[in-house]
Design brief:
Blueprint lengths: L3 H4 E4 L3 H10 L1 E6 L5 H12 L3 E9 L3 E4 L2 E4 L3 E8 L12
Antiparallel strand pairs: 1-2, 2-6, 3-6, 4-5
Length: 96
C-alpha cells in the first residue's frame, strides 16, 4: 500500500465542487493516478478524521495546447468525489 500522504494531492475549488459540498456533503480532490477507491477512502479517513460513505473517481485526460509554434500536452490527472457520511463535515481553507 502507498503512503497515505502521497495519495491526496490537493483539494479542487470549482463551482461544481462548491455546489456539491453545500448541497450533497461531497468534497472534490485531486488524487494520485494510480490510487484506487479503497486507498483514497483510507487516506481521507486517516488524514481528516471523518467517515467516508462512498468514493467516485474520474480520469481526466490532459488537453493539447499550443505554445507559440510548438504544441504541448497538459498532464493527465485523476479526481475523486468523496461522499461523507451523514453528520460529518470537512472544511478546507479556500484561497491561495
Amino acid at each position: 500500500m502507498k503512503d497515505i500522504y502521497s495519495i491526496i494531492k490537493r483539494p479542487l475549488f470549482t463551482e461544481k465542487g462548491s455546489s456539491l459540498k453545500e448541497n450533497e456533503n461531497k468534497i472534490l480532490v485531486e488524487v494520485a493516478k494510480d490510487a484506487n477507491k479503497i486507498e483514497i477512502k483510507k487516506a481521507i479517513e486517516e488524514n481528516f478524521k471523518v467517515k467516508v460513505d462512498k468514493v467516485a473517481t474520474i480520469n481526466v485526460r490532459g488537453k493539447w495546447k499550443r505554445y507559440g509554434r510548438s504544441i504541448g500536452k497538459r498532464p493527465d490527472t485523476k479526481k475523486a468525489i468523496i461522499t461523507l457520511k451523514k453528520g460529518e463535515k470537512l472544511e478546507f481553507i479556500e484561497g491561495a
